Amino acid sequence: MTQQTHATPASGEGTGTPGEPRRDPRLLVTAASPSGWLKALRRNLRGGELGPVPVIIGLILIAVVFQSMNDRYLSAQNLSNLTVQIAAVGLMTTGVIMVLLLGEIDLSVGSVSGLSAAVLAVLAVRFGVSEWVAIGAAVLVGLLVGLLHGVIFAKLGVPAFVVTLAGLLGWQGLHLYLLDSSGSVNTSANGAIAMLTQTYFVPVVGWSLVIVTVLLYMGTVFAVERRRRLAGLPYKPLPEVLFRSALLAVPLVGGVWVLNQYKGVPLAFLIFVGFVVALDLILRKTRYGRMVYAVGGSSEAARRAGISVDFIRISVFGIASMLAALGGIMLVSRNFAASVSTGGGEELMMAIAAAVIGGTSLFGGRGNAYSALLGGLVLGAIASGLLLLQMESSVRFMITAAVLLIAVILDAISRRGRKTHARGGA
Amino acid sequence: MSTPVLELSGISKTFGAVRALSEVDFQVDPGEVVALLGDNGAGKSTLVKVIAGAHPADTGGVITWDGRPVTIGSPSDAQKLGIATIYQDLALCDNLDIVGNLFLGNEKLHFPGTLDEVEMESRARELLDSLSVSIPNLRVPVSSLSGGQRQIIAIARSLLGQPRVVMLDEPTAALGVAQTAQVLDLIERLRDQGLGVVLISHNMADVRAVADRAVVLRLGRNAGDFPIASTSYEEIVAAITGAADNPVTRRSSRTGSSALATEDNR
What we know:
The complex is a heterodimer. Helices cover about 70% and strands about 0% of the residues of chain A. Chain A is built from 16 helices and four strands. In chain A, the strands form two sheets. In chain A, strands 1-4 form a two-stranded antiparallel ribbon. The longest helix of chain A is centred in the middle third of the chain and has 28 residues, at about 205-230. A six-stranded mixed β-sheet of chain B has the order 6-9-10-3-11-12, with helices on both faces. In chain B, strand 1 (about 5-15) and strand 2 (about 20-30) form a beta hairpin. Chain B has helices spanning about 45-50, 75-80, 100, 115-130, 145-160, 175-190, 205-210, 235-240, 245-255, 260-265, and strands spanning about 5-15, 20-30, 35, 60-65, 70, 85, 110, 115, 165-170, 195-200, 215-220, 220-225.
């Protein structure tokens, strides 16, 4: 969550003209100008509110380094492939983030994605079920698996770590069992499943999405700030709203422009970003999301506030495994096959690492859905660069480990910053 | 005298072979601060839990609310009547901001079913203003607040349910001098707004500062009901410990100094 900067209309010592926000003299006033916002940003950084800044700096560094080693790195084709490659693990990461927000961990996401891949391929190929129905069944299997984890964790009190460790083994076992006769099932190269990662939208679709997103953002922020002003609360003035909208528009326009240079915006990436945005809205704007943060902050306080902690826990595990299942479907779509190794490799580690690199705390209650996008981009950018340089996975694992450590160290340091700057260390 | 808002008579509570409360009477008037005193194990917490609905009382006792007999069988019964309880561990979510904590479990929504942050923030501002609490930014996580401010937020949250009786369990334990004063100020403001306040405290200085009446429990029985203004410290201590022969009176007779010296030594 970004720290709000507050501004007040230029006025004398607030003697209470009606409609003017009352302002506590202890609040630092942010000037309504770019230099004022920069000052507020610097204050936040020093206070440990790093936000997405370190990740963005990291992404720029990665881009500069790899581009200098291979000039095809920043080509539209490579970047476009990158966005499709991160979609599968990215979807798993969004689920992992939900669980991390509760202060728990889900070790089974890789196995669940593999199980979903096996269910999908077996249904669609061996049983000849329609591919859409098979996709629905795979998602449903993920949801049921997650609900089972959640019930065992919430109702029986078994630590989530152990429940999902059992899931890690058990669901991988079921996955192998389903595929055992062949070891691998090839799916059709031009059905609904393949379409998920093979579809690209014509440029006009990308541009329309950018315009609609920016306008929606600007409109809602403007409406909210107007209500805040009328209610006499601190609000952001119009120039700041415009400035923030511009900050949102720059990466959107840049991204769509690059993707349009190649084949257009890929459907897979759009699905991933769509889930991230939806999850973000659910977490920040709905009662359900507030409850998830509350349970992650203090389950006892949440219980006393009348929140059904068990319901939140069970549903979060259900959603996490459902998103993992979606990730598994993406894996099948990209490889045109479900094999015994689908989802059984580095997916689990990468999903958790991406969440942490993106800025979600392992200790619960702190983080947001955009961590999945940012963390996924960092890991994807590294993987893609090393692939281009034809490095072994050994090198990639070591580099990924270093990035993960840096992210956790930054988190620890910024937590200390928050403590000393009285912003809470949770 | 107005009728008591809450009156308990002949309340007993047994846990297995232990009789934690026997035939206890207790009442709170509107606009009154009642201190509930007693040594460890005297039954204070049990009585509070009976009133809060956490432990329903044994059959036989009578609880009346505004003169009407009621049963309090669960915490939600107590809340529906208008009894708010703030336990020692304040049960705040450290990662949520002040507004989020105040409205936790009771969020205000608007059109598409999303959180109405503007409404909640202005209501929070109004509420805190009515309590003369000044916190500059309501959007900071509560983990960044001082102990006194956290206590105040916990009390303010309980007031959103429009209670008529507020029970505070050791609200000033672990608070500094200035923070204790803030919380005591708040208790007086609640009283001035016509709420009945039940204050459980071991700190006699606090009790004498804000309470109108002190109800003393000893070994699960009523051991006295004193108007604070006309009762000496020794009398209350004697009731709490159950005898005139206690370390405090022994010491004061030995040293010749009044035990009140300890009281003034805040």
